[in-house]
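Database export, one record per block. Field names are fixed; values are copied verbatim from the stored entry.
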Amino acid sequence: MGAFTGATRGARARSAKLVLGGLALLSAGAIALSGCSSDSGGSGGGGGSSASKLDLKIGSLLPTTGTLAVLGPPEIAGVDVAVKDINAAKAGITVTTEQKDSGDTSTDIATQSTKALLADGVSAIIGAASSSVSLSVIDQIVGAGVVQVSPANTSPTFSTYKDNGYYFRTAPSDVLQGQVLGQKVAKDGATSVAIMYDNNDYGIGLNKTVQDYFTTQGIDVAADVTFDEGASDFTSAITTALAGNPDALIVISYDEITTIAEQLKGQGFDFKKLYGVDGNYGVITPDDTNVDIAGAQFTNPGVQASKDFQAKLQDYVKAQGQKPLTVFSYAPESYDAAVLVALAALQGGATDGATIKDNMQKVSEGGTKCKTFAACAKLIAQKKDIDYDGLSGPITFDDNGDPSQAYVSIYKYTTGNKTEYEESVYGDLTKK
């Protein structure tokens, strides 16, 4: 984890070299994590401060409504706790945040929220969670000269998107998640698999990478069934998917998983055969008493949040008068996104979008390793090159703004819709 050579983002070409067969995978335990609010002013994407005291304003475009609303609370808390830590370091930069709802693609919330954030002069936007939502606003954001960093976008589309170097993500492409999911299903002994997937950028991309893996392993995809995002009746899709009595059923969705699970129950489905993904992991909770999916397994890009970090997030949301978090998906990636933006501004000595963009890759690879904002800021003050290894892993942005090394974690549901961590699988996308 660490070094990845390459020119600065401002000058590099946007060529994708993610090769599915080239992933090097090995099991690893989740790495330890640690963990927001803010005060003071900020500067916009078109300008910034280069004085000894920098004021940085970042926006977050994360879901509080829509099909991915389950991811909003941990992601928002992750950003806020990071900003709290950044400001507590008193390292010559003060960060303020503004959160706006991203909604989902069934509404125009994301466009309006992005417009409001840009009007308020943010230099970077953290979000969206949904790949499809990000694709609906990416031109709006990067066209304004503002950096976009998603903690949860996994669609391979972003690896080749023409964003002038302004788009980054701290979650790995589904090229990695697809292989880990396929590997898990194969390891469990399945030789015939059915797939149900959302008809959106996320679902289509992940479905392809999973199928590519099964093809290389000689595993039969007995049924491949799509459905519309936000649909409420899956009877026909389920009947088609289960017609061949597959050994495993993979469901690639968002919160549609709740209805799908209830309708699977109605057909006497054995949930030990069910596999899900990050978009639907954690949607079904112990509060859902209509169905118990004990035995189902889910992949989730990133590491498991450590108990210390979880406690830190819970303390924060409690202090804000909010409900306790039930999942921690993408909280580490959200935390790291905010820290990297602040470090890039500190490294470049200014808070405008172009400066942040030009320094994002620099602070993520090649220099002296550091694991907290305070430690990294101290090295920057000493004029040293840094390599931030964050809560979500080594990060190390490649030339496409993707993390070149990352983890995908696997979770299993137990009786009462509780979840337990199984393992984290490490993938190095630079290995061929």
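Remark 1: Confidence is low (pLDDT under 50) at residues 1-51.
Remark 2: Residues 20-172+304-408 form a domain with the Rossmann fold fold (CATH 3.40.50.2300).
End of record.
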